UniProtKB/TrEMBL annotation:
<dbReference type="GO" id="GO:0016787">
    <property type="term" value="F:hydrolase activity"/>
</dbReference>
<dbReference type="InterPro" id="IPR029058">
    <property type="entry name" value="AB_hydrolase_fold"/>
</dbReference>
<feature type="domain" description="BD-FAE-like">
    <location>
        <begin position="51"/>
        <end position="164"/>
    </location>
</feature>
<protein>
    <recommendedName>
        <fullName>BD-FAE-like domain-containing protein</fullName>
    </recommendedName>
</protein>
<dbReference type="Pfam" id="PF20434">
    <property type="entry name" value="BD-FAE"/>
</dbReference>
<keyword id="KW-0378">Hydrolase</keyword>
<dbReference type="InterPro" id="IPR050300">
    <property type="entry name" value="GDXG_lipolytic_enzyme"/>
</dbReference>
<dbReference type="InterPro" id="IPR049492">
    <property type="entry name" value="BD-FAE-like_dom"/>
</dbReference>
Amino acid sequence: MDQLPALGRSLENVMGPTFQIYAPLLQQNTQTIKSVTRETFAYGPYDRQQLDIYHAPHPRIVNGRRPILLFEYGGGLVRGGKSLPIFPDDLVYANVGAFFALECGYTVVIADYRLLSHGAKFPSGGEDIALAVEWIATNQVGQGSEPIDLYIMGNSAGGIHLTTFLLHPDFAETRRKVVNGDGTRLRGLVLLSVPFHFAHAPESRGPVLETYFGDHEAHAPLGLLKTARREQKIPLDFVQGGARLLVMDAELDSEDEIRRPGKDFITEWLAMDDNESRSALAVDSMTGHNHISPVLGLSTGIAKEEAWGHQVAGFCENIRKFKPSTG
């Protein structure tokens, strides 16, 4: 982490060097990371719709409920996978699954989604998450038969897809299934270093944004939130169901692409002046990290690298102290 400030904040400049910094740190813990049982399943009809499940050896049962964390990785809409070939031994994102399984007692689901090379086009990212959520709610995932506390964390482009799932009307029926009742219940959402809009994005991103979004101003997370405020009942359905939202950025994230858009999203959210909406939002930051390093820091066994993971777990566990409402 101490080497990260010298790399700057530009995503293009930090990506390769950050991978190089963290590779040996993760390789030192290969045995621990690999100790977590992993299974792979198809969750939809496309070849890309595959997910890995990392089984917690000791699930953390609270109020008779078992936790599952669905993680959606980043990659700028054009790259990424539940296992990155740039890292040896399938350590990334196995390290994320291992951290939350071993340290927190969470069953972790890491799902692939369609990229531009697979024909992805808005709102396909939301469709992929909705299918993964339906699969989790339908199948007996992990050890035990307890009802599920479901959390979803979206990093960067994965966070774009998560906001599509949360805010687009096409996915209201899937949301309805997991924001009510006693079974699989959506309890919390984590938006991790998400580009909430692209007003200050470099021109080089233009072709990808146009291909995926079409109208990226309306379809980006901030645009979806503005539309939802106008057209949907407030508080939003997942907030009415008791789910909470944590927005996090990294200290060394790009100001123009991540931090400023994040502030704009938070301002828009807080313009919903009802108590439920305001109370649903939490905001935090990942000290010392850049845009790439947080997920690589998990399972290194280094306290300051893994601190943000414990921040996320603390957010989730505070929610789990209370049983979900059944009204």
